[in-house]
Structures are given as C-alpha cells and as structure tokens.
Amino acid sequence: MGLLSHGSPLSWEETKKHADHVRQHGITQFLNIYNKVKERQKDVLKWGDEVEYMLVAFDHENQKVRLVLKGEEMLDTLQGRGEKINPNHPTLWRPEYGSYMIEGTPGQPYGGTMAEFNTVEDNMRKRRQEASSLLLDNVSICTITSFPRLGCPGFTLPEFPPTPVEQGASKSLFFPDEAINKHPRFSTLTRNIRHRRGEKVAINVPIFKDRNTPTPFIERFANDPGAEAKAALPDHIYMDAMGFGMGNCCLQVTFQACSISEARYLYDQLATICPIVMALSAAAPFYRGYVSDIDCRWGVISASVDDRTKEERGLEPLKNNKYLISKSRYDSIDSYLSTCGEKYNDIDLTIDKDIYSQLTREGIDHLLAQHIAHLFIRDPLTLFEEKIHLDDANESDHFENIQSTNWQTMRFKPPPPNSDIGWRVEFRPMEVQLTDFENSAYVVFVVLLTRVILSYKLDFLIPLSKVDENMKVAQKRDAVRQGMFYFKKDISKAGNVAVDGCCTAANGTEAETEEYTLMSIDTIINGKDGVFPGLLPILNSYLENMEVDVDTRCTILNYLKLIKKRASGELMTAARWLREFVACHGDYKQDSVITDKINYDLLVRCNQIANEQVSCPELLGFSTRIKQSGNKNTPL
Ligand code: GLU
Ligand code: MG
What kind and span of H or E run contains 255? Predict the structure, then answer.
C-alpha cells in the first residue's frame, strides 16, 4: 500500500506544518525525474500483478473463523527465506494495512512474450504454498476481498476489544487498533486521516433488505459515546474506521510502457475499463456481519480514507481550507492524460494553481501539469521526522508521499530516481478472487487487453463523467447482469491515430452524444450483433494472429472463457455466489445477518475451493483441477 519509511512518525499538527514543504519538494522531485527520463523510449513492455491475502484461523470445535494478527511476523519470515537471501526468488512479499493481511507479487516482472501468460498461475500458487507452509494446520491464507464479519465482536485472534474512547488510531466502536499493521505508517495514516477530517470516518453501506430484515434497520451501539447516532444512517450498515476499507483485499496489475506517451495513452484507455472489470470481479457483498446491497468494496474504501474536512466536503463555507473537493483520496481518476483524452475531460478539476503554473513554466504540458496539480491539492498524511529534508535530485519520497496516498482507479507512475524502471501505469479496481485460476484469468485478460489496445490502436474514451457514472453502477448488487454502462460504440480509431498512439484532431468535437451508448457487461465483453463487437472477440482474433505454443494458448483460452461466462451471467461472480451460499444456509433467518456459524461454513467452503479440494462449477465452470483426482485443467 505504498511507501514505507522508517523512523518517528509526526502527529497531524506537526505534519500539517510541513505540508507545503512536502508539496514543494515533491514537485521539485517530480520535475527532476521528468527532466531526466521524459525522452526515454523503447523500454520494453513489462508487467506484474499484486495479490492481497488474509490470514484466517478455523476453530473447528466452536465453528468459528477469525482473522489472525500475524501478518508482520509472517512477512519477516517470508522475506527472510526469500528475497533477502536470493535476489532471484520467485516471490516478493509486502505488508498490507491489516495486521491479518499480506501482499504477494512475482519476484520479477513478466515480459512481453505470450509464453509468460502460462506462468502466472503457477507463480500465484507458489505464493499460496510458500505462505501456507508457515501456517499451522488450522490457519489458511485466503484471497477474499472482504471478511464477512470484519468488525464483529471477537473477529481477531488474539482477540482485542475496540477502544472508542481511549487514545488510539481509529477510536472505532468495532475495529481494534491491534488489527492494524504494526508498521507505524498504517496507524499514523489512520490517526492523521481522522484528525485532518476533524472526526471519525463514516461509512454507510445500504443493507440488503431481506424478508425478515427490520424496517427501518437501525442499530444501537453499546459503548456509543454519542456521535454514532448521527453518523449511522437508517437502513445502512455503519462502519467507522479505516480498517473497514483498507482492511479489504484486491488484485492489481502494473504495466511498464515503452514511453511516457504510451503510458499516458494506456492510463486513459484503461480508466474507461475500470468500472467494467470491477463489476466483473465483484466479490464483496458482506460488511460487519451483514448482507449489504452492494457487491464491491470500492465505495467502502473510499469513505474509509476520506480525510476531507466539512468545509472541503461542502458542508460548511470555506474558511480554514483552500478548496472544495468533490472526491475522497481513494476514488476514480479525475482527468485523462493523453491528448486524445482532452476533449473528454468534463469533470471539474480542483488544482493547486501555483503548482500548475510552476509545472507549466518548467515545460510540463497542460494535461500532465493539471494531473499533478490535482493530486497535490492533498496534504501529506504521514511524515517521518528523519525524512523531512531530502536530496531532491536523488530521492522522491515527498513526491511519493502525495502520489501514493491518492488511491485512484488508475495510477500514473513516473520512474523512481536513478533506476532503469520505465514509465508505468497501475490498474487498481479489481476485487481479489478466491482461486489462483480466477486471479490469473482476470490479470491475463487485462494484460491482453493492453496488448490489443496498443496493437490495434483502440479508443475507448468517453466523457469522464460517464466513466464516473459507470463506477457507481458497477458497485451495485448484480451489476454484471443488471447494470447498464456507457461505452464507446466505435472503438476503432480507423486512421485518426498519430504515431504516439493518440488520435489527431480529425474527428473534432462533433456529436459526442452519438459516440457512446448504454450497454450491458455482456455486450461490452462478448459483443452483440449490430451494436458492439465485444472485447473478447477482439482479443480472440488478436490471439489467432499470434504465435503461441499450444499449452499457453489453451491456458489463455480457458481464462478468457471464464471472463466470457462471468460476463454473460452463465457463471456467477464471487459476490453472487457468496450471497447464494448465505441465502441457502440452514441457519440464515432471511434477516441479513451473517452469524459466526454461517461465516465459518462459508469460509471453510471458500478455503476448500481455493485449495482445490472441492469443485465449484457455478463459479468456475468445470475448469478447476481437484487435488484428489489429480485432474489437469479441462476446458470449461
Ligand atoms: N487494499 C486496497 C484495495 O482493496 C488497495 C491497497 C493498495 O493500494 O495496495 O483497493
Ligand atoms: Mg496492496
């Protein structure tokens, strides 16, 4: 989850005093990097995935599952046995927000060859095995997006009470500080977000109204010091800590482009794909022990790190703050970066005008300058005493400080100083799937899509405000089958493409409304005669023209079949499958409550599926190999 510095974290009051210093030097650091590497060309296409995991303990005797607070310890051991003794170790491990979380990536980025698609799943398996080998028999490493009973009494092992009144990072009624990773970055972020905002974060997720769910649904909180009654909305599941959001897991992919302009082009094109793939990957229907009416984590995390003051949120007139800010730091992107995106930039963009002028004075073009000046309206949230004065020519911590706490659907990443890494973009909306097979399928789908975008010079751009509307639809329950999404009708730029992948002015500004229309995910992914060709048919024809060995082709086609069937609704999303499991559970009282026993049975099943001990055709088709029978992948 970003930059980890060591040292003594400053309080919010102290950090605030240095905010302008961090911004000024962050900009200098950005300019230094930009000037050194702006002309860099011909970096090769490389990419890598990031998978986030939770540690889950099964208490079979009491039929209860809990999150194990051992992420830090495990990270030390995994790194000690891996990257620290062998620079070519196949996996890399990183801390994540929850003390029950850990993140794994491949040891080296993947390159541009097709054959590498055939190694993705093996690498993910290796990670699962490596981590599992450190765990006791009753503990598993699970790729679940949200833990259904996160924040319910006794959800951690060891158990800790929340501390709403005492001094603490979250002051949550539900989420104990011990569940936050012990690295000071994480608790400092938590505390400083709360202090900057001037109150606890407030997350309200609509509850799923089942037959016996009380109407209105209003909770009374024991231990309530008063404010909750106001913050908790009726008919909503109320949560009050960063952990409810950043304590969720996701699946991300980062690409290195061959030049800055290719990175900007990919950033824009993929931004339009974010809501589509998020809906396709939906895996997070349950929060704090209740069934919700949403399928994705996105809005929950967004609210969980919303550090804006009342003034910035427009609830009070601006007095002590500079800007009215329309979104949380964790949200969708606000501007396209490539020249062909410019005409679709229709969202009001709040920027730091001084930074914008400085950047343009120094030769940065308008689109990139406004992007950076927009990220830099935010304050730094953490600062370490030892890291205030830096060498701007060779370090980038102040730039990264602001950059890495702008958690947007896409991230545009300049190369680190003095490295041979190129310009990169990160694709961040996907929810993590239960199995390595599914995670590989989603990752390979997105990577192949980038190849196709670049090879065929595709253009998905629509007004960014429409992408934002899509983001809202994407999180709704069953969006994959019921949602309608704005999508471009003609994605072949047919001749309007300049060498750098951006369109020329040939189609001007005429008739924008005609360019896009509402489509279902099925139409977007699988195509519909006379309406849209479909992304998968395009990928398939690309694959037909590529030289690929038989085994790799078979693997890729199997992945694409999963995507195809998820998009058509023939296979369930994880969110739908999780909902159906709960709905059919014998103990479920149609009251939207997920009891300890339901949670236990659910997680046992998820873990069996992930470890290939049982099949789950509703979710996976017949693609999974089951260990006992030793079957290799068979086509779906
Ligand atoms: N866990 C966060 C999510 O689900 C992402 C944290 C990160 O940026 O690594 O989106
Ligand atoms: Mg992460």
Answer: strand 251-256
Closest listed residue to residue 192, CA positions, set 351, 12, 380: 12
How do residues 252-296 score in pLDDT, each as one tens digit? 999 999 999 999 999 999 999 999 999 999 999 999 999 999 999
User: Quick one: tokens of 334?
Assistant: 């606000």
- Written as six digits, the tokens of 170 are 């979250």
Which parts of the chain register pLDDT below 70? 2-5, 223-229, 494-513, 623-636
Determine the Cα–Cα distance for residues 139 and 146; give it in Å rounded to an integer. Answer: 17
SS3 425: strand
Distant-in-sequence, close-in-space partners of 422: CB < 8 Å, separation ≥ 6: 37, 40, 43, 46, 256, 257, 258, 259, 263, 415
Ligand 1 atom closest to 432 (CA): 4
C-alpha closest to that of 301 among 315, 289, 284: 284
Instruction: Answer whether 432 contacts ligand 1 (Cβ < 6 A).
Output: no
Under DSSP, the state recorded for 562 is H
Query: Which domains are assigned to the chain?
Result: 12-202+243-435 (3.30.590.50)
Q: How far is the CA of 431 from the centre of ligand 1 (A)?
A: 9
Q: Which atom of ligand 1 is nearest to the CA of 431?
A: 4
Give the three-state DSSP class for 114.
helix
Pocket of ligand 1 contains residue 52 by CB under 6 Å: yes
Which region, left, alpha or beta, applies to residue 457 given φ > 0 means left and ψ of -120 to 50 means alpha? left
Q: Give the phi and the psi of residue 590 in degrees, each rounded to 5.
A: 55, 35
Cα 324 to Cα 310, 454, 478, distances in angstroms: 9, 37, 33
Token representation of residue 183: 């690295």
Residue 590, C-beta contacts closer than 8 angstroms, at least 6 positions apart: 210, 211, 212, 213, 583
Q: How many CA atoms lie within 13 A of 541 on its CB side?
A: 9
Q: Which of 54, 93, 97 has the most ligand 1 atoms within 8 A of CB, as the residue to mutate?
A: 97
Residues 6+ apart with CB under 8 A from 328: 302, 303, 305, 306, 307, 308
Three-state DSSP class for residue 252? strand
CA of 489 to the centre of ligand 1 (A): 32
Q: What is the rounded distance in angstroms from the CA atom of residue 463 to the CA atom of residue 344?
A: 4
Summarised one tens digit per residue, pLDDT across range 550-585 is: 999 999 999 999 999 999 999 999 999 999 999 999
Q: Rounded CA gap, 421 and 415, in Å?
A: 6
pLDDT of residue 466: 98
pLDDT attached to residue 7: 79
pLDDT of 494 reads 44
Look at the chain and count its residues. 636
Strand intervals (E) in 363-419: 407-408, 410-413
Which of 628, 472, 635 is closest to 556 using CA atoms? 635
- Three state DSSP letters for 190-236: HHHHHHHHCCCCCEEEEECCCCCCCCCCCCCCCCCCCCHHHHCCCCE
pLDDT per residue over 429-458, tens digit each? 999 999 999 999 999 999 999 999 999 999
Which H or E element spans position 574?
helix 574-583
The whole-angstrom distance between residue 519's C-alpha and the CA centroid of its chain comes to 24
pLDDT of residue 513: 54
